[in-house]
Amino acid sequence: MHTGTGPHRRDVRDWIVDLSMFLIALVYAIMTVLDFPPPGPSGGEIPPFPERDIPTWWEIVERIVALAACVSLWWRRRWPTRIAVALIVVSVVSQPASCAMLISLFSLALHRPPRTSLVVFGLGVGSVGLRSLLVPDPYIPPLLAFLLGVAIQGSVIGWGLTVHHRRELVESLRDRAVHAETEAQLRAEHAQHQVREAMAREIHDVLGHRLSLLSVHAGALEYRPDAPPEEIARSAKVIRESAHQALQDLREVIGVLRAPVGELPQPTMADLRQLVEEADDVGARVEFTTDYEGTVPDRTGRTAYRIVQEGLTNVRKHAPGADTRVAVRGAPGEGLTVEVRNGHAPAGGSGGRSDGQGLVGLTERVSLLSGRLEHGPTSDGGWRLSAWLPWPA
């Protein structure tokens, strides 16, 4: 919506509207100057009132002023307030300029704030009263002429304000739609960012576990080249299977990243025993005990799986060969407790201390479930990782 400030380049619609307004004001001015008498009640003409003593030069000036008023409408978009005030003053003494004045009032209400329009309307009311005193209409009583003039100006101002508010409403709805679209896009980007962060955590957990298995078996082959052929073949088989599974995990991750929407395959509590057996196969001597009944919620089960996975991975990294115990216990309404505890690492191991991103990711996972995570060294030189997860009844 053009506010009337600064230059305004007219388009085809503006040219048509401006030309129409100019011609309407000009036709009214011509008809007023020719002074056609109105028809009488019986179809005849009302006898003309006594002619006023108007000098010829004044008639010429009045017609020039009326023409100038009509021409000024071409600039009513750029200076609506100035044009409206000037035409109000002119209309006091020039009846032919009245139509141009009404058009300027409409443009003023359309392009300026309501407060400005109402102030100018007050000036217009004063001009109507002044005209009814200076140039009384011979056919209408002064009071009726005053009320009629105020009603006409008020109707024009009200019409302009209605269009003005309607345009503002449309513009507001358009801005709101653009704002809502921008917010939706930002929310989508934020959600995508969160999904990618979740994928990064999954990649860390899954590939970290697989690569730790590879590292353990590769280290065994390196330090024991004289091992029996059966043990070497067994280690090579585990390395091959772990490498193959790591490649499969990578393919799944890449497939998810390429897809517009999707999630990584998520483990469940049913996969927990297989996870422990894989760790036990590499000689970690893992003791696994469970004491719970019922069906663990999927999200809680996934988190429990990741806790055990991260704990076993850290044992292989920092305390290889240490005795490890995995315990899962709980009940609906009491919560699920998951604990991974390893003893002192043989051969001068590090005892399982780790300040990497794995524990940071676990802390975030557990906090999202409103659970608790504890980790730290034990009295026997080992390491303990324990978490409590809510399990609704």
UniProtKB/TrEMBL annotation:
<dbReference type="InterPro" id="IPR011712">
    <property type="entry name" value="Sig_transdc_His_kin_sub3_dim/P"/>
</dbReference>
<keyword id="KW-0812">Transmembrane</keyword>
<keyword id="KW-0902">Two-component regulatory system</keyword>
<protein>
    <recommendedName>
        <fullName>histidine kinase</fullName>
        <ecNumber>2.7.13.3</ecNumber>
    </recommendedName>
</protein>
<keyword id="KW-0808">Transferase</keyword>
<keyword id="KW-0547">Nucleotide-binding</keyword>
<keyword id="KW-0067">ATP-binding</keyword>
<keyword id="KW-0472">Membrane</keyword>
<feature type="domain" description="DUF7134">
    <location>
        <begin position="63"/>
        <end position="150"/>
    </location>
</feature>
<keyword id="KW-1133">Transmembrane helix</keyword>
<feature type="transmembrane region" description="Helical">
    <location>
        <begin position="15"/>
        <end position="34"/>
    </location>
</feature>
<feature type="domain" description="Signal transduction histidine kinase subgroup 3 dimerisation and phosphoacceptor">
    <location>
        <begin position="196"/>
        <end position="260"/>
    </location>
</feature>
<dbReference type="GO" id="GO:0016301">
    <property type="term" value="F:kinase activity"/>
</dbReference>
<dbReference type="InterPro" id="IPR036890">
    <property type="entry name" value="HATPase_C_sf"/>
</dbReference>
<feature type="transmembrane region" description="Helical">
    <location>
        <begin position="143"/>
        <end position="161"/>
    </location>
</feature>
<feature type="transmembrane region" description="Helical">
    <location>
        <begin position="54"/>
        <end position="75"/>
    </location>
</feature>
<dbReference type="Pfam" id="PF07730">
    <property type="entry name" value="HisKA_3"/>
</dbReference>
<keyword id="KW-0597">Phosphoprotein</keyword>
<keyword id="KW-0418">Kinase</keyword>
<feature type="transmembrane region" description="Helical">
    <location>
        <begin position="87"/>
        <end position="110"/>
    </location>
</feature>
<dbReference type="Pfam" id="PF23539">
    <property type="entry name" value="DUF7134"/>
</dbReference>
<dbReference type="InterPro" id="IPR055558">
    <property type="entry name" value="DUF7134"/>
</dbReference>
<dbReference type="InterPro" id="IPR050482">
    <property type="entry name" value="Sensor_HK_TwoCompSys"/>
</dbReference>
